[in-house]
Amino acid sequence: MSLTVVLGMTVLTGCGGATAKTSGARAGKSADFPNKPISLIVPFAAGGGTDTTARALAKAAEKVFKQPVTVVNKTGGGGSVGMTEGSNAKSDGYTVTVVTVELTTLPHLGLSPITYQNFKPVGMMNYEPAAITVRADSPWQTMKDFLDYAKANPGKVRLGNSGTGAIWHLAAAALEKETGTKFNHIPFEGAAPAITALLGGHVDAVPVSPPEVKSQVESGKLRSLAVLDDKPAEVLPGVKTLKEETGIAFDYIGTWRGLGVPKDTPDEIVQALSEGFLKGMEDEEFKAFMKKNGLTIVSKDSSSFGQYVKENDERFGKLIPELGLSKK
C-alpha cells in the first residue's frame, strides 16, 4: 500500500474549496464542531468497495472527532441518487457524502442532475489506476505484443469493461486514443462480471483496477500486462507501468473516492472536516484495512482535491462527447 499526502489549504476559484482564512468570530463558531454525530452518505450498496472503505474511514474518524460517524447507504443511478441527496443536505457539516469519479462522468453522460459544483470538497482518500489484464494462457506476453496486435487487427481485441461510459470503459478509450488502436468494447454490469467473462474466454482482456484482479493473478489464472499509471501497483508485484513497457505515457484515467459537503457549508467547517478525516487516514487500523484489501491511500486536502476534481470534470467533458456517449 502506498500513501500519498497532498496538503496546503488555499483559496480555490470556481471549485468550492475551503479557505484557511476565517475571522475570529467565524472561527469561534466551529470551535466545538462537531458536537453531535456525523452522517456519512455512501452512494453505493453495503458490502461493496466504496462502502467498506467508507466504514473503515468512519471508524478511524470517530477517534478524531470524538463523535459517531454513521454510514448511510443511498443507492441508485450509478451513485447519482446518493450524491444528489448529499448535495441537498443541510449545510452544517453534519452530513458528509462519499463522492467518487462518477461525480465528474455522470453529468456529461446526461445521467446526473448535479455536478462537482454542488459540493465543497472535503478531501480525497483513495485512487486506483487501470491495469490491462489477460488470461494466463493469452498469446500476448507483453503490453507491446498486445498493442501491436490491436493496431494490426482493429476491432478484434474484445475488451470487457464495467459498463458503457463507466470508468474502465473511459480508461480503455483513453488508451485507444493515445495508442492509435481500436478495441471491441464489451460492456458488463460492473468489473466483477467482466473478469468472470475473461476467465471464461468470452473477452480477451479487461482494463480494471489492480485490486479487482489481484486474487486471480495470484492464483495464476490471469496475468496483468501493464499498469496505466505513473508508478507500479504494489498489489501486482513485477508488473510494470505502460511507460516502462512501451515508452507511452499520457494523462491516465483511474477511479477515485473522496468526501464532499453541500456547497454552502461554511469554510471553517469544511476545514475542520478536512483536517479530521485526513487524520483518520493516518490511523493504523485504517491503513491496515487498505493494505489488506490492496487499496491505495491517496490523501488530498480540500483545496488540492477540489482542483483535482475540476480537472477530471474538464477532461471527461471533452472525452465523453468525443466517444459519442453524451446524452445532453
Question: Mind explaining what this structure looks like?
Answer:
This protein is 37% helix and 20% strand. With 328 residues, it is of the alpha/beta class. Helix 2 (49-65) crosses helix 9 (267-281) and helix 2 runs antiparallel to helix 10. The longest helix is centred in the C-terminal third of the chain and has 21 residues, at 302-322. This is ABC transporter substrate-binding protein.
Question: How is the topology of this model organized?
Answer:
Layout: E1 3-6, H1 24-29, E2 38-42, H2 49-65, E3 69-73, H3 80-87, E4 95-100, E5 119-128, E6 130-135, H4 143-152, E7 158-161, H5 167-179, E8 184-187, H6 191-199, E9 206-208, H7 210-218, E10 222-228, H8 242-246, E11 255-262, H9 267-281, H10 284-292, E12 297-300, H11 302-322
Parallel strand pairs: 1-12, 2-3, 2-4, 7-8
Antiparallel strand pairs: 4-11, 5-11, 5-12, 6-9, 6-10
Helix pairs in contact: 2-9, 2-10
Summarize the structure.
This protein has two domains: 3-128 and 255-322, D-Maltodextrin-Binding Protein, domain 2 (3-Layer(aba) Sandwich); 130-246, Periplasmic binding protein-like II (D-Maltodextrin-Binding Protein, domain 2), CATH 3.40.190.10. Helices cover 37% and strands 20% of the residues.
The CATH superfamily title of the largest domain: Bordetella uptake gene, domain 1
Strand order of the largest sheet: 1-12-5-11-4-2-3
Structural class by secondary-structure content: alpha/beta
* Oligomerization: single chain
Give the count of structural domains. 2
- The biggest beta sheet, please? 7 strands, mixed
* Average pLDDT figure: 90
CATH topology of the largest domain: D-Maltodextrin-Binding Protein, domain 2
User: Could you tell me the number of beta strands?
Assistant: 12
- Number of helical runs? 11
> Helical amount among residues, as a percent range?
25-40%
Overall form: globular
H-E order = EHEHEHEEEHEHEHEHEHEHHEH
Report the β-strand fraction as a percent range.
Answer: 15-25%
Radius of gyration: 20 Å
Reading off the top of the CATH hierarchy, the class of the largest domain is best stated as: Alpha Beta
